[in-house]
Amino acid sequence: MKSSRHFQTLAVLLFLAVSALAQQAQQPAPPSIPATGFPGLDQYRASRIAVFTDDFGQLARYRDANAALKPPAPGENRVVFFGDSITDIWHLDESFPGKPYLNRGIGGQTTPQMLVRFRQDVIALQPKVVVILAGTNDIAGNTGPMRLEDIESDYASLADLARANHIAVVFASVLPIHNYTDRSKDFFAQRSPEKILALNKWLKDYVSSHPNCLYLDYFTAMVDDKGLLKKDLADDGLHPNPAGFKIMAPLAEAAIEKCLAATGTK
C-alpha cells in the first residue's frame, strides 16, 4: 500500500515538473532592443529597459525635490532649466550664483520623455521662464528612431503647455558636436550635423511666429570653422566642459532677462 502511494506521489511530481518545463518552453523569449548599428547606443538602450517600461519619463527623479520646494516668493523670478544630460551636469549655482534657477535635467532623455514630466518638473514649480535644451538624444535615437517632424511636434507641445500656464519659453539651439577625440567618435556618429542644423532652423523659425518664445543660440557661439563643436569646449564631443558652460551661461542669462522684460516682470 505504501509503495503504491509512493509511486503515485512520484508520478504526480513528475507530471508537474514536465508540465512546468513545457510551459516554460512555450513562453516566448523576452523582446530585445533592436540594433542601431552603434554598439555604444545599443548598450545604452539595453541598460534602460527598466526605465522605458517602469518610469518612462523618470518622474521619480525629481519627485521628492519638487515636493519639498516652496512656491516662489513674491517678486521671485524663478527659472527652470529643463533638458537632458547637458543640463543635468550643469552646475547652475556656479554659473548663476544667487539666482532662483532650478535644474531639472535628466541624462539621456528625449523630448517624448520630457513631455511626460513637463507638468511635474516645470509647470507645477511655477517658474516665470523655462529654458529648454533638448533634441540631441532624439537625433541619436536614444528611445528609438525619430523623424525631425516628430521632434518638432514635441517641441511645439512643450511650448503650448508652457504658454497655457503663462510660462515664457526659451528654446535653446541644439549644440554642435565634434569628433576630434577618440571619446567623441561614437557620439558624433549617432548625431547627424545636418539634422542638428535643420532642427535649429525649425526652432528659430518657430519662435519668430509664436509669442512668449525666444531662441537661444548656443550653436553659433560654440561652432568652429568646420561646422563642429570647438574642440576645447567638450572632451567627449558632446557634453560641455567648464569652458563650454562659461560660454553658455551669459547667453542664457541674456535670454532670460529678455523674456522677463518682455513679460513685464523685470
Please give a quick description of this structure.
With 266 residues, this protein is α/β, with parallel strands linked by helices. The chain has helices spanning 2-26, 39-47, 49-54, 60-68, 85-88, 92-95, 111-121, 136-140, 148-164, 185-190, 193-208, 218-222, 242-262; strands at 79-83, 101-105, 129-133, 168-172, 213-216.
- Which structural class fits the helix and strand makeup? alpha/beta
Q: What would you say the CATH architecture is? A: 3-Layer(aba) Sandwich
Report how far apart the termini are.
95 Å
Cα-atom Rg, whole angstroms?
A: 24 Å
Gross morphology is globular
CATH top-level class: Alpha Beta
**Main sheet attributes: strand count, strand direction, barrel closure:** 5 strands, parallel
State which percent range the strand residues make up.
5-15%
- Give the overall pLDDT as a whole number: 91
CATH topology: Rossmann fold
Series of secondary-structure elements, N-terminal to C-terminal: HHHHEHHEHEHHEHHEHH
Write down the domain tally. 1
Strand tally, please? 5
Figure out the total of helices.
13
Specify the CATH homologous superfamily: SGNH hydrolase
The amount of helix comes to 40-55%
| Low-confidence parts | none
> For the largest beta sheet, what order do the strands appear in spatially?
2-1-3-4-5
